[in-house]
Give the backbone structure.
Amino acid sequence: LWTAGRLGAAVAAICATVLLATLPADPTATLRYSHDSAYIDRLVQNLLAGRGFVNDVLWYVFLMPPALPMPFHNANPGYPLAIAGISWLTGLQPASGGLVVSALAWASIVWAATCITARLFRLPALASVVVGLVVALYGPVFATGLHLLPDALCTAFLLWGSYCLLGRDRSSVAAAGALFGLAWLTRTSAVLVGPAVVLYLLCLLYT
């Protein structure tokens, strides 16, 4: 029996396979790699080398603190840690590991959007998957899966957190809180969903 969740997972796996199969041999020589990607790349190299969250290149920009090492403060730690984990497990260079994380996160967006659609609108499995694909293939969303940036991972955490909120029981709400926390650890702008989440919880409490 192909439920929306199972069908969405299968389609997400196919999407991930396609993206992973098209990864460039040298991401640093492509448009997928920006100056922000370079900061993240260097940070992950330092993490894998045991130096911690430092990026001495930034010292030339800010000249603070007055001495090295230079703490990395340009982004939240979630995405670099995920890349470091993938690179450590697979032996990939951080630039390639970052694209793997983004590709897997984007595929997870397909799955999450499918599950949210099925639960919220009670659509059939195939229709839910179509909606999930439309969401994930929307230009700016699709682009997040191609670049060495934290957007795809943050979006995936936000969507899965939203899916858990629809469960309405305490364990689901707790899981949603954990996922929203991971989204914030990936990208600070995740806090923008805070007012909507609080309003939703208040509606659950008083209705």
DSSP finds ten helices and no strands in the chain. Residues 12 and 56 are 38 Å apart (CA to CA). The chain has a mean pLDDT of 93.
